[in-house]
Write a structure and sequence with these properties.
312 residues; Rossmann fold; five-stranded parallel beta sheet
């Protein structure tokens, strides 16, 4: 275990409580009715038994309606796995995603303060026919990086204090983490293949949080750090795509310029620090989930694209 990972795992609740400090700014999770029946027409072959694995960019914290157990996983009935399951008419669907999840939580219980989420790979069976996986951001340190960069911005708004924090004579700490993140994702994909050897597997990348060069009130990072953080996001997705290719899985590219935190509210797929629509700060909103769901369907070669999904 790396020193960085050991530090993050040292306090079991920290991974949940750190992002939760940001998340509680918006709303409180609400209960929802039981899952709806599969769409008419029966399940398509790849989605006869669909299991979704992932972190908060999969679960959809604070996008209504929230549902499922444990409630602290903050799963939304409007997240992209639910949209994909409905579009494909999945006969059986399990959403195992959970806020704060890392690759380690695919094979071990995830501590959620007072409760735990079972290992996500436990949801897989030999009969599973479709798996989506969206993970890696928390292994990189997503919550830590976002909070640190926001805190440092006022010290040098026109400079790049976050880049300075993570880089030095020894290199770039964030970029140095990326190879290990890729290895961990590869390990998860091996576990998926062992449990569900006949399943089609789609690995979902992360949508753009920031524009390439600009800042805005919804993303109050220092001017020079926006390009730095954009580069880290892009390289993380490159690592995820390579892990998918090495495992023979489908990679789902969710990039979409003009839909980041600084986009107009109606074009935004990711909410900023002060959300305009129900969603966790710095996380996808319902429109973003619909767009990602469409990308998943297209990557799988499905003919039935979610009705009303935004297109580029």
């Amino acid at each position: 275990m790396s020193a960085v990972r050991a530090a993050r795992r040292g306090a079991p609740a920290a991974r949940v409580l750190a992002p939760a400090c940001v998340l509680v700014l918006t709303a409180t999770a609400t209960a929802a009715p039981a899952p709806a029946a599969a769409a008419d027409g029966g399940a398509q072959g790849t989605a006869a038994e669909y299991v979704a694995l992932g972190d908060s960019f999969t679960s959809g914290p604070f996008i209504p309606p929230q549902y499922g157990e444990p409630a602290l996983c903050l799963r939304s009935r409007s997240n992209y796995p639910n949209r994909v399951a409905e579009a494909l008419g999945a006969a059986e669907f399990t959403d195992a995603s959970c806020i704060g999840a890392e690759t380690e939580d695919m094979t071990e219980p995830q501590n959620l303060a007072l409760v735990s989420n079972p290992p996500q790979l436990d949801a897989l069976t030999a009969d599973t026919t479709l798996v989506t996986l969206g993970v890696g951001g928390n292994d990189l340190g997503y919550a830590e990086v976002a909070l640190k960069c926001l805190a440092l911005a006022p010290t040098d708004l026109g400079g790049d204090p976050c880049r300075d924090h993570y880089t030095g004579p020894g290199g770039d700490e964030l970029r140095d983490r990326l190879p290990e993140v890729g290895e961990r994702i590869g390990g998860v994909l091996e576990g998926v293949r062992e449990r569900s050897p006949d399943a089609e597997v789609a690995v979902v990348g992360y949508p753009e949080l920031l524009p390439r060069h600009e800042t805005c009130l919804q993303a109050p990072f220092a001017d020079g750090d926006v390009e730095y953080l954009y580069g880290i996001w892009s390289e993380l997705n490159t690592v995820i795509a390579k892990a998918a290719a090495d495992a023979g899985a489908v990679y789902v590219d969710t990039a979409g310029p003009g839909h980041d935190m600084c986009a107009a509210p109606g074009d935004r797929w990711v909410e900023g620090i002060f959300p305009n629509r129900p969603a966790a700060p710095v996380h996808p909103n319902s429109a973003g989930m619909a767009a990602v769901g469409q990308r998943v369907l297209e990557a799988l070669g499905a003919e039935e694209v979610q009705k009303g999904s935004p297109r580029l």
